[in-house]
Amino acid sequence: MNQLKALYQKSGQSPWIDNLSRAWINSGRIAELKELGVRGLTSNPTIFANAISNSDDYDKEYFSLIKEMDSKGAYWRMACEDVAAAADILKEVYDSSGRTDGFVSIEVDPELAHDTLHTIEAAQWLWDTIGRENLMIKIPATLEGIPAIAEVLSRGISVNVTLIFGLGRYRMVMDAHVEGISKARELGHDLTRISSVASFFVSRMDTKLDPILKSLGQEGQNLMGRTAVAQAQAAYLAHEKRYKRTDWLRLSNGGAKLQRPLWASTSTKNPDYPDLLYVDSLIAPNTVNTMPENTLLAYLDHGKDGNQTSSFQSNSDVVLSAIKQVGIDLEKITEELEAEGVSSFATSFRDLLNALEKKRGLA
Fold first, then answer.
1. Considering just the CA atoms, what is the radius of gyration of the chain in Å?
2. Distance from C-alpha of 339 to C-alpha of 337, rounded to nearest angstrom
3. Is 98 helix (H, G, I), strand (E, B) or coil?
4. How crowded is residue 130: how many other Cβ atoms within 10 Å of its Cβ?
5. What total of structural domains would you count in the chain?
6. Closest by CA position to 198, among listed 141, 278, 251, 123
């Protein structure tokens, strides 16, 4: 049993891969990763921008599509085809896991992050267009995204809530999940077929906070590289508490599936830190870790195994308390990270469309 399979079978955490491209589909790479133990796949606008802009794998289809639609329409057609193909490859995992894993995620237009109504419409369109049971629609956890999450879930659509950076917003996400599933039950949907994950972004917190801590002398420097893990651990503890409440237990007894925490942004950005800092420290049952390929291969090579939750309470309490004592306003930091995350994905999307327009000019 390799480390990826042990992560799931021994520790109850599902390893997913954070990447998707036409080349991966055509070469059989996704099937290879599935055999290694990968149990799901996530994509985002930056991933698609890299896949489409930096290769000629899509050119033939693109030049055919733009005879009848604009570049944006062509993008969505190609992205939906990739996601459908990846979902077909992972359908075996979906079926064998009792519809718990084997999902492929695609994000709504990132420029809709602050538009509730159009986010709901985009999610429904993607769900209908791709037409795969093992699809998750990614919706950002902005204030405007929260009601969209509840509404989309209530329609029987599986949701990957993305761009969660702080505990306060995460609690709102969990409440939106419970609200959406409750409404789905009222509407007669099969609750066993509605899944959700909550993508809590990890490493970006340390990347943002470390320069501030470094300027605060030894006390601050002692906390560098520790906040991201501590906050994610606190999120897991909040998750355990929320899903023991009566309103959820009633739904669970009716077949509703737990919304699992998903650790996102888990590659180590600082070369001074261990390469698996955001993987080894966050192993817990009923969670997902979606890793870029290099991080996933590193875990396969030398990752730890074993449930780490026994240390979550003590470590998160100590570190988050110390962060507060040195004068860091984590709520403000998480608001900045959310704004930067939304902006980054929107920029990637616009850059992609600009690159496609340039190709169109060569047609």
1. 20
2. 5
3. coil
4. 18
5. 1
6. 141
Position 53 confidence tier, pLDDT thresholds 50, 70, 90: confident
Alpha helices in the chain (DSSP H): 3-11, 22-27, 29-36, 45-53, 59-65, 71-96, 116-130, 145-154, 167-186, 203-214, 217-221, 227-242, 246-253, 277-280, 293-302, 312-325, 330-362
Convert the pLDDT of each residue in 138-180 to its tens digit: 999 999 999 999 999 999 999 999 999 999 999 999 999 999 9
Question: Whole-angstrom Cα distance, residue 71 to residue 62?
Answer: 8
Q: DSSP code of 311?
A: G
Q: How far apart are CA 175 and CA 354, in angstroms?
A: 38
Contacts of 29 (CB under 8 A, 6+ apart): 23
- Token reading at 90: 């992972």
The distance from CA 168 to its chain's CA centroid, rounded to whole angstroms, is 18
Of 62, 79, 76, 71, the closest CA to residue 25 belongs to 79
Q: Which two tokens stand for residue 92?
A: 């075996």
Q: What is the CATH number of the domain that holds 53?
A: 3.20.20.70
CA dist 189 and 143 (Å) reads: 26
Compute the distance between CA of residue 47 and CA of residue 43 in angstroms, rounded to an integer.
Answer: 6
Q: Which domain holds residue 289?
A: 3-362
Is 257 an active-site residue? no
In tens, the pLDDT along 249-267 reads: 999 999 999 999 999 999 9
Amino acid at 297: L
Residue 101 DSSP code: S
Each as own residue / partner, the long-range contacts of residues 55-63 (CB below 8 Å, 24 or more positions apart, any chain) are 55/21, 55/22, 55/23, 57/21, 57/22, 57/23, 57/26, 58/22, 59/359, 62/356, 62/359, 63/359, 63/363
Active-site choice (138, 214, 257, 304): 138
